[in-house]
Design goal:
single chain, 102 residues, alpha+beta, 3 helices, four-stranded antiparallel β-sheet, Gyrase A, domain 2
């Protein structure tokens, strides 16, 4: 149960409105407002780069007006939490590198 609460908290922190864990797949829905300034942030760009590095199990999808990430082979909430922690660490590391280079 604790993993689910932490998972939702991290999802919101990273810009996702909704998470679905079903059939060994995790679907993450970005905020619905496509005019949001979130989509111009460094964090969003880093997430897109992270998706591109996850060649096999991860893909970006757009269905109507909803942008989402689909990640396969997510076997549990603990596994999903590990993915979020990896993504958050990637964002923080990249932001730190950008600050250092400026």
């Amino acid at each position: 149960m604790f993993n689910i609460v932490k998972l939702r908290w991290l999802a919101r922190k990273l810009g996702f409105e909704k998470i679905i864990l079903k059939n060994n797949k995790m679907t993450l829905f970005f905020i619905a407002n496509q005019q949001s300034g979130y989509f111009a942030t460094k964090e969003f760009k880093i997430i897109l780069e992270w998706i591109n590095k996850q060649v096999v199990n991860c893909r970006l999808k757009q269905n109507k007006d909803k942008l989402s990430i689909e990640i396969n082979n997510v076997l549990s909430a603990a596994n999903a939490l590990k993915i979020f922690i990896d993504l958050e660490e990637s964002i923080l590391k990249t932001l730190d590198e950008l600050k250092t280079n400026n």
